[in-house]
Specification:
Shape: globular
Strand order of the largest sheet: 1-2-3-4-11-5-10-9-8-7-6
CATH topology of the largest domain: Aminopeptidase
Number of domains: 2
CATH superfamily of the largest domain: Gcn5-related N-acetyltransferase (GNAT)
Protein name: GNAT family N-acetyltransferase
Pfam family, one: Acetyltransf_1
Helix content: 25-40%
Radius of gyration: 20 Å
CATH class of the largest domain: Alpha Beta
Strand content: 25-35%
Distance between the termini: 35 Å
Oligomer: single chain
Order of helices and strands: HHEEEHEHEEHHEEEHEHE
InterPro entries: Acyl_CoA_acyltransferase, GNAT_dom
CATH architecture of the largest domain: 3-Layer(aba) Sandwich
Largest sheet: 11 strands, mixed
Number of helices: 8
């Protein structure tokens, strides 16, 4: 990547990061930190991002985060403009990006319920609404007495056992393992629950330059569920966020259909603070 392209990606990543911190512009599939967003842009390249400019200023961005089996996860539209003319230009921008990838048949979006302009774009694209994901937040946990001594930071020495866990969880364990471990850096931390020499669950904690930390994944081995492992993982991650990162809040997201999971987090002290609406656009 040449210097001009690097500088341009830095500018785009800064725009995306700053905009995505605000609920009225928030979308999913973006990294939590500007550094992570920059990595996303570099990994996927210019064919997977569309930018609307006005002079040298960025007006809007739409991009593809991942592609699997003919499906693209889309971040965007992210824009501070909400007029009708910009809406038309952004719709055209989305269509241009779609036309670049004839092998992709389905595009999925997650857009904040407060992102009214994004919902208008979804309507203009004639997307299908698939459901809601709640964003839940806690400034403290109700139960601080839970024993978290079995939860430890991931280390490569546990990779074999971790891979065994992934085989238990996913159809494509090698791909998912490489994807997850590839995320790890100073802004993405992986913690595992190790018991009897077996990795029985894991949790990923994401940080950014703000005072909020995010639980991006919390997963338990199928054979060891309903044993309090998720409780231990979430408690450890929250304590780590509050103490080590001096966070004032920890967030996670849950699909609205998972009522028992929502009740579990509410008992821990989490409250619903936002909704992300899930849309799908299918190419005819």
């Amino acid at each position: 990547m040449d210097r001009n392209e690097t500088e341009q990606y830095e500018k785009i990543s800064q725009f995306l990061y700053e905009m995505n911190q605000q609920p009225e512009y928030h979308v999913n599939y973006l990294g939590r930190s500007q550094e992570r967003i920059m990595t996303q842009l570099e990994q996927h390249g210019p064919d997977h991002i569309a930018v609307l400019y006005e002079g040298n200023d960025i007006i809007a961005v739409v991009g593809i985060e991942t592609i699997t089996d003919g499906t693209a996860h889309v971040f965007g539209p992210i824009t501070a403009r909400t007029d009708a003319a910009t809406s038309r230009r952004i719709t055209a921008l989305c269509e241009q990006l779609i036309n670049k990838h004839p092998d992709i048949k389905d595009y999925e979006f997650y857009i904040s319920a407060q992102h009214s302009f994004g919902r208008l774009v979804m309507k203009s694209l004639r997307t299908q609404y698939l459901g809601t994901r709640y964003t839940m937040a806690a400034t403290r946990l109700n139960d601080n007495a839970i024993d978290t001594r079995l939860v430890i930071p991931y280390s490569p020495i546990y990779k074999k056992s971790f891979k065994t866990l992934m085989k238990n969880l996913y159809i494509n364990p090698k791909e998912r393992t490489e994807e997850l471990l590839g995320l790890l850096d100073k802004s993405y931390e992986l913690f595992i629950l190790l018991s009897e020499g077996i990795v029985k669950g894991y949790i990923v904690l994401a940080t950014n330059n703000q005072t909020t930390c995010y639980v991006d994944y919390v997963v338990t081995h199928k054979n060891y569920r309903h044993q309090g492992i998720g409780h231990q993982l979430v408690t450890y991650a929250a304590e780590h966020a509050f103490k080590e990162h001096e966070a004032t809040e920890i967030q996670l997201s849950v699909e609205d259909k998972r009522k028992r999971t929502i009740e579990f987090y509410e008992k821990l002290g989490f409250k619903k603070v936002d909704e992300l609406h899930h849309y799908k656009y299918s190419v005819n």
